[in-house]
Amino acid sequence: MAVIHRTTMKPGKLELLAGWLPTRPWYAGASAAPDLARAGGFRIDDPDGEVGIEFMVVTDASGGEPVAYLVPLTYRGAPLEGAAEGLVGTSEHGVLGTRWIYDGAHDPVLTERLLALLRGAAEPQDQNVSGVPDPTVVPETAEDALPAGAAVAAVEDGPEGTRLVVEAGGRRLGLELVRVLEAGRTDPGALGRVTAGWELPDGTRPRGAVAVLHEG
User: Fold this and answer.
1) 132 beta partners
2) d(C-alpha 115, C-alpha 151), whole Å
3) What is the pLDDT of residues 1-41, one digit of tens each?
4) In principle, which of 26, 122, 151, 213 could form an S-S bond with 192, CB 3.0–4.6 Å?
5) What is the pLDDT of residue 158?
6) 68, 58 in Cβ contact below 8 A?
7) pLDDT above 80 for 156
C-alpha cells in the first residue's frame, strides 16, 4: 500500500507541470503560461512499494474555456534509466528527499499497473488518502482482451494524445491515454476503457474516459 505523506514538495507539482505541459504535442492551450488547478485523479499501488503512481487531472484556465488534462505521473527515488524523454522534473519531498517525477506513459511500472487495472488485477485508490479504494474510477474490458502477459511495446506521443502500443497474446492493441478530457466520452466499440470524474473551475463534475483500449 502506498503511503501518502502530508508534507511539502519544492517545486510543487503544479509548478512543474506549468512549465512542462506547453512542451507537449497534445497541449491545447493558447498560452505558454497555463493557469493550472488540481481537478481530480486517482492512484494505483506499486506492489513493490518503490514507485508512486498518480493519475492526476489538472485544469488550465488561461484561455476562454477551461481545459482538463490527464497527466499520469510516477515518483521515484532515483532516475529511471532510459526515460529522460519522460522526465517532468525533480522536486524535494519533505519526507522522502529528492524525487524524480516522470510522465507515466514512459514509466513501465505505471503502464504495467494500468494494464492490470484494465484486466481487473489492480484496484484504483483514492488520490489523497492512503489505503482507500476509489469506486468512482471504473475500469471495463472485453473478456480475454488483455491476457496476463500483455505489455506495452512502444509509446507514441503526438498531437492527438498518447498511444501505448500493447502486445497481447500475439495481437497488437492501442491503449490511448486521453490527454485532453471530454465530458461524456465513452468510445463505443472500444475493447476497454477506464472512466473517471474531475472538477471544473465552476464546480461541475463531468465524467468521461481517461484511457481507451482499441483493436490495432
Assistant:
1) none
2) 8
3) 566 666 777 899 999 999 999 999 999 987 778 999 999 99
4) 213
5) 95
6) yes
7) yes
Helix (H/G/I), strand (E/B), else coil: 21:
helix
Cross-strand partners of 103: 73
Joined grid coordinates for residue 100: 524524480
Classified as helix, coil or strand, 67 is strand
Task: Give me 195's grid cell.
Answer: 472512466
Average pLDDT, the chain: 93
Instruction: Name the phi and psi angles at 86, rounded to 5.
Output: -95, 5
Residue 26, beta-bridge partner list:
none
Contact in structure between 109 and 53 (CB atoms under 8 Å) = yes
Is the predicted pLDDT of residue 61 greater than 90, yes or no? yes
Global pTM reads 0.93
> What contacts 65, CB < 8 A, 6 or more positions away?
none
Rounded Cα gap, residues 202 and 115, in angstroms:
33
Nearest to 59 by CA among 76, 78, 36: 36
Rounded to whole angstroms, the Cα distance separating 179 from 148 reads: 26
The C-alpha cell that represents 88 in the structure block: 517532468
C-alpha to C-alpha distances, 168 to 84, 109, 113, 211, nearest whole angstrom: 27, 17, 15, 17
